[in-house]
Design brief:
This protein is mostly helical. The chain contains 15 helices and 6 strands. It has helices at 3-26, 30-36, 40-49, 52-61, 70-73, 82-94, 101-105, 118-128, 145-148, 155-174, 217-223, 240-247, 250-263, 305-317, 331-342; strands at residues 68-69, 98-100, 113-116, 324-325, 346-351, 354-359. The strands form 2 sheets. A 3-stranded antiparallel sheet has the order 1-3-2. Strands 4-6-5 form a 3-stranded antiparallel sheet. Strand 5 (346-351) and strand 6 (354-359) form a beta hairpin. The chain is globular, with a radius of gyration of 22 Å. The chain starts with a helix and ends in a 24-residue tail after the last strand.
């Protein structure tokens, strides 16, 4: 079909991915959202996933240092656009892209004024002004073919690897494969397949050091409602939602599982209790880069949420088939590399004593703003 028809057909999938992505960010505590915006990759991903009118407002406010009275913003649209205007402002505030004036400048005034979150504003300015992403793992980490020699997979091998890993995951869900260990609710066995040697997968350089049992896909399946949870008295096996999952596109499937994967880093171990619709105060001089543990989060993984999410968003902007060094990654980000490699989103390899990862077609464009095949299938698996 012509490009415009393909784009129109892809919009429901794109909206679903953007909704899942923005929904999780809106549930993070304000401090974590602000730390996330230290990454220009995260800023760009959020911008691309916003409603069209909200994107326009971001660009309009990009170089406005102070706030704009909300009553003036209401005059930016005609009567027919009131609903879209209200929704755009709500989403921007929910995601802390837009903040009340006193949170931006520290000074209150008569009536409410709104402005861009200074961290989001700085990140977007850096990109627009050609300053690069500057988040600690720029594309300067990309390796050349001469660095890797024969270790770099060919495009055909990379596509075969991604397709094989994702198909193995789908077959594991149905019980037709033991490529992944699917633990029960107590991690004591398998709710679908109880075969010895599960977690094998294909042999080769990409599988070296990878133990699929480290990634509890059973927990992901249960969290997404794809299989019954015996610990809750539910019938074991694939649920109605699981069958719908199997019929959806690969991009939708990936996002459904990635959202559940990221939720392990949510406060209290759930996706709830986050930023909400109110824009909480922010000290803009505090970079919050230390990842300290003064939040009092019940979930010890919660402190890693900004770093993990920023890496996943970085991955969606990196070029498939290009190798990137793992040297500059944090420990939590290296853990993500190990996990998503088992799902086929990237291909891990080692050369000359250094670690690298190669994004596959499954990882491109997942932030919901493009960057991949418009038909949403990612080239492998899915409907």
């Amino acid at each position: 079909p012509p490009p415009q028809e393909r784009r129109a057909r892809a919009r429901p999938h794109t909206r679903a991915m953007a909704s899942a992505f923005l929904g999780f960010i809106s549930q993070l505590p304000p401090r974590h959202v602000d730390r996330l915006y230290n990454s220009p990759h995260a800023c760009l991903a959020v911008l691309r996933s916003l409603p069209e009118l909200a994107k326009h407002y971001c660009m309009r406010l990009m170089y406005v240092e102070g706030g704009v009275p909300s009553i003036d913003m209401d005059e930016w649209v005609i009567d027919l656009g009131r609903d879209a205007h209200a929704e755009s402002v709500r989403r921007m505030r929910e995601l802390r892209v837009m903040l009340p004036l006193e949170d931006v400048t520290g000074a209150a005034g008569d009536g409410e004024s709104l402005g861009l979150n200074p961290k989001f504003q700085r990140g977007m300015r850096s990109i627009m002004e050609g300053g690069g992403f500057g988040d600690g793992f720029d594309d300067d980490d990309a390796a050349t073919a001469s660095d890797l020699g024969s270790a770099l997979p060919s495009p055909e091998d990379l596509e075969s690897y991604a397709k094989g890993r994702w198909e193995a995951l789908l077959l594991t869900l149905t019980g037709a494969s033991d490529a992944f260990v699917v633990s029960d609710g107590d991690r004591g066995g398998s709710a679908i397949a109880k075969k010895k040697g599960a977690g094998g997968g294909k042999k080769g350089k990409a599988a070296a050091g990878a133990n699929a049992a480290d990634l509890d896909v059973g927990a992901l399946f249960r969290a997404a409602g794809l299989i019954g949870d015996a610990s809750k008295g539910e019938k074991e096996g694939v649920t109605e939602a699981g069958f719908k999952f199997l019929l959806s596109t690969a991009r939708e499937q990936i996002w459904a599982l990635l959202v559940r994967y990221i939720e392990r880093y949510a406060p209290g171990g759930t996706a709830g209790g986050g930023a909400g619709t109110e824009a909480a105060p922010m000290t803009i001089d505090d970079d919050d880069d230390d990842g300290g543990d003064d939040d009092g989060d019940a979930n010890p993984n919660a402190q890693d949420a900004p770093a993990v999410l920023s890496f996943l968003l970085k991955l969606t902007f990196q070029a498939p088939g290009v190798a990137y060094s793992t040297d500059g990654l944090l420990a939590s980000q290296k853990g993500v590399v190990r996990d998503v490699a088992k799902l086929g989103l990237l291909y891990p390899l080692a050369a000359a004593g250094k670690g690298y990862y190669v994004p596959t077609s499954l990882s491109s464009g997942l932030s919901g703003g493009g960057g991949g095949d418009d038909d949403g299938d990612g080239g492998v698996g899915g409907g």
